[in-house]
Amino acid sequence: CKFSRSLLPRPRRLLLLVNPFSGRGQAMQWCQTHILPMIREANISYNLIQTERQNHARELIRQISLPEWDGIVIVSGDGLLHEVINGLMERPDWEQAIKTPVGILPCGSGNALAGSVNHYAGYDMCLREPLLLNCCFLLSRGGVRPMDLVSVTTSPAPNSHAAPRRVFSFLSVAWGFVSDVDIESERYRGLGSARFTLGTLVRIASLRSYKGRLSYLPPTSHTPQTPVNHLLPPLDQPLPTQDWVTIEGDFVLVLALYQSHLGADLHAAPQARFDDGLIHLTFVRAGISRATLLRLHITCRAFRLQPLSPRGTLTVDGELVPYGPLQAQVRVQTFSIYVI
Ligand code: ADP
Ligand code: MG
């Protein structure tokens, strides 16, 4: 009868966003063979939308009616989740919108967040279908955990008089070696995640260093969670002299990571926890000779990076952003991710 039916828990409704071109272009095939059978088995109802271009998902998420969905799940690499998170934060109702649980089913070539999720669920490191199946299983169980969001202010595009841009990031900011590999290895996309390995070998053969200034705020003081960048002055104004540490010199790489993994098989910041309120900052400086590289790992709440070499690449969550001064602050907000 009507009465008893209304007492049954209704099935979860998930919006699946699939980038058919992610990784080796196998996302739709893996939907049919792995993802949808498991989701149906878990009695989850779903709508599946294939993205047609870059920023399609971001625009969609800005407009949809969120109460209709229990969660938004991306079937791709980290890049598509970056779009979804930013789409949620660009909504007028962002404070409520960002509470929508999100999930990641790894089908990309950059599956760093899936690597972290897999790790904290207690699974052994794995790639491709085994990683996907673990993440499908976690998604079916439906437990969520909070995860830190980092607010990143990037320079405007060259020759534009626009204001600095703010984007939200759940994974990384990279300059130098790491971002070079990420971008230059795009041409090896057919290799899947192996492209990072090959790209790395290509780049080591011609190790570059870049002049720059890196400033960071160590995590000594208590930092409340606020949506404004209260630790940072505007990008074109000097940093406070108190508490901040500044290093100037030749850098081979600067990597700010807030999750444990930089790739599904790259456990780059083992101390990182989903919501530790910390940015794990690794930087490698070129020594007097090319043979002596100084590698340092610190944690901070905020940092500013000022590249002084005229050309280079900067990425946020693996996505290219305009080259120029950039700054970031952690714990501006948290979001919920399916992990347990
Ligand atoms: P991968 O890990 O394989 O790089 P991503 O999810 O990171 O996969 O996606 C790579 C890029 O493709 C991202 O910049 C994303 O915004 C973009 N993108 C998403 N959907 C499409 C599409 N249908 N066509 C082209 N690019 C897309
Ligand atoms: Mg990517």
Short key terms for the protein model shown above:
Rossmann fold, Tumour Suppressor Smad4, 2 domains, four-stranded parallel β-sheet, 26% helix, binds adenosine-5'-diphosphate, binds magnesium ion
Q: Can you walk through the features of this model?
A:
The radius of gyration is 20 Å and the shape is globular. It contains nine helices and 15 strands. It folds into two domains: 2-148, Probable inorganic polyphosphate/atp-NAD kinase, domain 1 (Rossmann fold, 3-Layer(aba) Sandwich); 150-334, Tumour Suppressor Smad4, CATH 2.60.200.40. The strands form two sheets. Strands 5, 6, 7, 8, 9, 10, 11, 12, 13, 14 and 15 form an eleven-stranded antiparallel sheet that branches. It starts with a helix and ends with a strand. The protein has helices at 2-7, 27-41, 56-63, 78-89, 94-97, 112-120, 128-141, 177-184, 194-204, and strands at residues 13-18, 45-50, 71-76, 102-106, 144-154, 165-169, 172-176, 210-217, 245-257, 279-286, 293-300, 302-307, 314-316, 319-321, 326-338. With 340 residues, it is of the alpha+beta class. The protein binds adenosine-5'-diphosphate and magnesium ion. Residues 77-79, 108, 110, 318 line the site of magnesium ion.
Helix content: 25-40%
- Radius of gyration over all CA atoms, rounded: 20 Å
State the domain count.
Answer: 2
Beta percentage is: 25-35%
CATH classification, class level of the largest domain: Mainly Beta
- Report the structural category: alpha+beta
